[in-house]
Amino acid sequence: MLVTNILSSHHANSQTRELVNAFNEELAKQGHESFTYDLYADTFQPVMRDDDFNQFMGKPLPGEVIAIHEQLRRSDVLTMFYPVWWNGMPAIMKGWIDRVFAKGFAYDYGADGTRGLLTFKKVCIVATLGNKKADVDPRLEESMRFINETGIFSYSGVAETEQHFLYSAFSDEDTKATTLELMRDMARRC
Ligand SMILES: Cc1cc2nc3c(=O)[nH]c(=O)nc-3n(C[C@H](O)[C@H](O)[C@H](O)COP(=O)(O)O)c2cc1C
Predict the structure, then answer these.
(1) What pLDDT is attached to residue 110?
(2) Which of 37, 75, 113, 136 is most buried, judged by most C-beta within 10 A?
């Protein structure tokens, strides 16, 4: 089984990065292969421009996007690890979706409507938040879940989207240990 992770983490001392590392370690123990796109470290360019719009004209996409498509076609599970910024995903992650989930790759449409084209067994989303859960209006998490599951992945043909919104996940040692175990459990269920 191949799991491809998309990671948005702008610094080395990042809880989001520590979570993907724990997830990958457990995947390896389970005999699974994983590959991580580290968007900041890879200096991914998230702004849609120029040849990115070729998707709407039936022309070839930029080579870097085609290479990501080839990696994703080989993958059984896709994950996204990111810190919540202003109640959504960071711009670099949103830009990755904009550019990579192109017409003809993630979805297509014609006279009979739209159809999703992605074939992942499942998608897992791990989003970290600085706030405590009690301090956040629950409708914000509901809206993030809804956009991810219905607006992006179900639209693109994915039947199962597992989401974890982790509030103050490293606030104390017990919470941190529980959170890391959750990542290992997610890996065992891939
Ligand atoms: C620009 C920005 C916006 C943020 N917005 C939110 C937010 O909407 N809700 C929240 O709980 N935390 C918010 N935070 C806190 C981050 O979610 C938190 O710092 C992050 O989860 C820590 O993960 P990291 O160690 O991997 O960077 C924000 C942080 C930044 C820098």
Answers:
(1) 86
(2) 75
